[in-house]
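Possible regression after last week's pipeline update?

I re-ran a chain I had predicted before the update to compare outputs. Posting the input and the new output here so someone can diff against the archived version. Not blocking, just want to make sure nothing changed silently.
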Amino acid sequence: MTFVHNNIGVVLCQDCLCVRPFSDARHMAEERCECGGEFCGCLHCECGVAMLRGGIRSGLALDLEDPADLAFWCEETGTRAPPEPTASRHHPTTLF
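New output (post-update):
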């Protein structure tokens, strides 16, 4: 049985605020975020995602218990720092 609790088909991490596609496993806390947080796809979280996507960066407006620095929020990483670029596998050639 699939639980569809929202109209936009996403879940919101309750720790870092990243957004992922909705799945039963994520919504039922069987699959966790990369940061270890639980996902939620309830109507309240759907509204939070819509507000974040709309540019709202106020912890008070988003009703956050522990307002994080939302200035650099993005869907992929939430409030976590973006991943470091991977090191190039190209090694310069030394000429003698």
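Follow-up from reviewer: compared with the archived run. Helices lie at 24-27, 43-53. Marking as no regression found.
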